[in-house]
Design goal:
Elements: E1 11-13, E2 25-26, E3 33-35, H1 60-70, H2 75-85, E4 93-94, H3 96-105, H4 112-122, E5 130-131, H5 132-140, H6 145-155, E6 166-167, H7 168-174, H8 181-184, H9 190-212, E7 218-219, H10 221-232, H11 238-248, E8 259-264, E9 275-280, E10 286-287
Parallel strand pairs: 2-10
Antiparallel strand pairs: 1-3, 4-5, 6-7, 8-9
Helix pairs in contact: 2-9, 3-4, 6-10, 6-11
Length: 295
């Protein structure tokens, strides 16, 4: 838990070893297994096209990625926004002084030589300015195939125009924060999760609009994939990523080995529904909330 950002950024793994009371019930008093390495879905082997560069900075990019992840799921978006703000002429580049200022503003504890090393690595055209979108590509990395297919499945459920684009208004309307695991487990309110999602989406839109020098009202698949690649950074477990993705978009995962049943009160607004949830993991154990009442 990060008290500064008020976010929980560790993921949890459910298995039979967590049932310390041996009562076939996993509750908040049981010892969940914390997943420490949140960046496991980033593979150096996947960096192989022109949108990426080989990391010759002695692991500084990995270090920067891990610091941003450790500060919460929204931190990478805020860092992205900062880069975009300093691109005053919408060129996709920022100066060495501005780049250093961003590190200082963000309290990123890197030496001047480290910052210069990163800058030179992404000054690909030797113009004395950093290509910050290339930097973001390397920080985010690429999703594994399973996650990419999950994102594709969700995107296919949207109504799209002839160009294969989805209205941002539809994305906002269909996002169901009430089924996010953090909300279900009582760690966040529905309104809080929905607000964070909208903030991330708006930052992402502003970033793309700044590069394109236009105002977007739609999102294509590549943009949707990039958006969820940023969210994916702070989620280690593939099962948890799928759980968040499919539940929040009301999409059937198609996984036969998961028995997840939702009981909702009558409501016409997805984000105002009060969901009771009865989740049985592969072990058949029921997840309970703090009051030992089933979700």
């Amino acid at each position: 838990y990060n008290p500064i950002t008020d976010e929980y950024y560790n993921d949890f793994e459910i298995n039979s070893n967590n049932d310390k009371g041996n009562d076939n019930i996993i509750n908040d008093n049981d010892n969940y297994s914390t997943i420490q390495n949140s960046s496991s879905n980033i593979s150096n082997n996947s960096i192989q096209n022109n949108n990426y560069v080989n990391d010759n900075s002695n692991g500084i990019i990995d270090q920067l990625r891990n610091i941003l992840i450790s500060r919460g799921s929204k931190c990478i978006f805020n860092f992205q926004r900062m880069l975009s703000i300093y691109d005053r002429n919408h060129s996709g580049q920022i100066s060495p002084d501005d780049f250093t200022t961003i590190f200082q503003t963000y309290n990123l504890d890197f030496s001047s030589s480290d910052i210069q090393n990163i800058f030179q690595q992404f000054d690909t055209n030797q113009t004395g300015a950093i290509n910050y979108d290339l930097l973001m590509n390397n920080l985010i990395g690429q999703m594994n195939e399973r996650r990419r297919l999950s994102v594709q499945k969700v995107f296919d459920n949207f109504n799209k125009n002839e160009q294969g684009e989805v209205l941002l208004s539809e994305i906002k309307q269909k996002y169901n924060s009430g089924r996010h695991p953090e909300v279900v487990r009582g760690r966040k309110r529905r309104e809080e999760e929905f607000g964070e999602f909208l903030d991330k989406l708006e930052i992402f839109r502003e970033y793309n609009d700044n590069l394109k020098m236009s105002y977007s009202t739609t999102m294509n698949f590549n943009e949707f994939l990039r958006f969820y690649s940023e969210i994916s950074m702070s989620i280690k477990d593939d099962n948890l990523f799928d759980n968040i993705l499919y539940n929040c978009w009301n999409v059937n995962s198609g996984f036969e080995d998961r028995n997840i049943n939702y009981y909702n009160n009558n409501s016409n607004n997805n984000n105002d529904r009060n969901y009771g949830i009865n989740i049985r993991a592969r072990t058949g154990k029921q997840i309970m909330n703090r009051r030992n009442m089933p979700y």
